[in-house]
Amino acid sequence: MEKTIDVKNLCKSYAGIPALTELSFTVSRGEVFGLLGANGAGKSTALECVLGTKSADSGSARILGMNPAADRKMIFQRVGVQFQESSFQDKITVRELCEETETLYRSPAGYSSLLARLGLDGKAKSPVSELSGGQKQRLFIVLALIPGPEVVFLDELTTGLDARARRDVWKYLLRLKKEGLTIVLTSHFMDEVEALCDRLCILRKGRTVFSGTVSETIAASPHDSLEDAYLWFTGEEETEYESV
Amino acid sequence: MKAFRTMLKTELKLSLRGMDMFIFAICLPVVMMVILGILYGDAPAYAGANHTFLQQSFPAISTIAICAGGVMGLPLVVSDYRHRKILKRLRVTPAGPVLILMVQAVIYALYAAVSLILVYLTAAVFFGVSFTGSVPLFLLYYVLVMLSMFSIGMMVGGIAPNSKMAGLIASLLYFPMLIFSGATLPYEAMPAALQHIADALPLTQGIKLLKAACLDLPTGDVILPILIMAALTVVCAGISIRFFRWE
Fold first, then answer.
1. Is B210 part of a structural domain of the chain?
2. Cβ separation B93–A99 shorter than 8 A
3. Do the domain assignments include residue B186?
4. B247 belongs to a structural domain
5. DSSP B21-78
6. Distance from C-alpha of A21 to C-alpha of A11, rounded to nearest angstrom
7. Domain A5-242: which topology?
8. What pLDDT is stored for residue A244 in this prediction?
9. Which of A44, A124, B21, B148 has its CA 20 to 30 A from that of A156?
10. Which of B89, B98, B247 to mutate to test the interface with A (most CBs of A within 10 A)?
11. Residue A96 CB neighbour total at 10 angstroms
12. Could you tell me if B86 and B157 are in contact, meaning their C-beta atoms sit under 8 angstroms apart?
């Protein structure tokens, strides 16, 4: 069976400095896959190389059996993306941004129900610039789900959200996962990773240091919580560690 | 088509909220027409001419909106969208560069059309200017001037490395063309040396075509300006789509 996402040996360097080395992973339909790592570990570079918005130096990435750079228009009918930074036109309102996004897709999910689902009902007429950080974050998750996607990429999906909103987002994503949505996410919150991810991959300076399920990750470390295991794998548990 | 219409509607609203095109493409040309109307009234273009100075100025002033939208508005909006990473977001959607650029081009074409109508009404209603030439030919040339100016703007917006550069290049194109092509300062009032320099600007050639159509002047050497502008359009539009940068 063909994998929904199939990444092989991706390498990318900036001005000779490697940002990503030999990244490989696969994600099956309905799976949630987490890319973990400290700031600057290469998570965003990895996402962008997989999505084709950055060209990898070597290796390959296929989404739904297609090459994202070559089959851009076909892939992004079926794939939603939320980047870390929220980008929007000056003076645009929530409704206008949603309409402009929705119109690009052949069979979009209605944005009104998505807004309501993520607690943004009543905000349709507000300028996007006047939303709070957490509201903007939720709006950009809505935009990623407007295509009615088969696969969604979420870069730091709940950064800036309060506890209630995070739980709501998780709950909704798990429901979509049950319906067959494949999710690739990056996160700094281990409770989030434990709640959502079937499998994860820990990056350190662009290299994969561990890849497996949450329980495998914990088992492979001398610790008994995911957060401790994660810090152990990324070499950030002690400050002296880095003084090589 | 649905995507185009929805984006056009939204982007037009956003552009109107910005106000700057309303000022530079709609108000400025009308004000210019009023000033020239007050200054020259129904004076002839030159001693013994059988058309008035205002009749001769109308086609020039009607291109101010094309110039403002094409070489200022278009490159700035495209580079601003790149700078704000809106293009990066659109890159992971099915939207293509042609759709994005065409929506903006049509918005500025609408500004130009509204401006043309208002300038004409101002000239006709308040200063009694009559249009003696060929309307279809005038409109044809108007579209040609618009296509060539807009393609320059799309090329600048499409390939400028950042929004500062785009702003700089746009200003370098916009102000000389606005002032020296005859769009604002009458070409006929310039000294001969300046006229020679002005002739190198594509907009000057466009205005000459418009004047010929408008005043029913002998159209001896129209082929060359037409060819130059058509070539400019094809080359610049081609470059802007081929080398379109999302980031």
1. yes
2. no
3. yes
4. no
5. HIIIIIIHHHHHHHHHHHHHTT-BSSTT-SSBHHHHHHHHHTTHHHHIIIIIIHHHHH
6. 5
7. Rossmann fold (3.40.50)
8. 44
9. A124
10. B89
11. 22
12. no
| CB contact B47 to A (< 8 Å) | no
**Residue A151, token pair as written in the block:** 């696969």
Q: Give the confidence band of B219 by pLDDT, cuts at 50, 70, 90.
A: low
From B93, which residue of chain A is nearest by alpha-carbon distance? A76
d(CA B116, CA B123): 11
The answer as to whether B91 is a domain residue is: yes
The number of folded domains in chain B is 1
For residue B169, give its domain range: 2-242
Distance CA A128, CA A101 (A): 14
Interface residue A103 vs chain B (CB under 8 A): yes
Distances from the Cα of B49 to the Cα of A54, A88, B183, B189, angstroms? 63, 55, 21, 15
Cβ-Cβ pairs closer than 8 A, A with B, add up to 67
Question: Which H/E stretch holds residue B18?
Answer: helix B2-18
At A234, give phi and psi (nearest 5°): -85, 0
Non-local (6+) Cβ contacts of B174 within 8 A are: B67, B68, B71, B72
Rg (C-alpha) for chain A, rounded Å, is 18
Task: Find, among A196, A139, A126, A132, the residue nearest to A162 by Cα.
Answer: A132
Q: Quote the CA–CA distance of A165 and A170 in Å, as a whole number.
A: 9
What is the ipTM score, two decimals? 0.91
The model carries a pTM of 0.90
Alpha-carbon distance of B35 to B172, in angstroms, equals 26
Tally the residues of chain B: 247
- Assigned token pair, A235: 């070499």
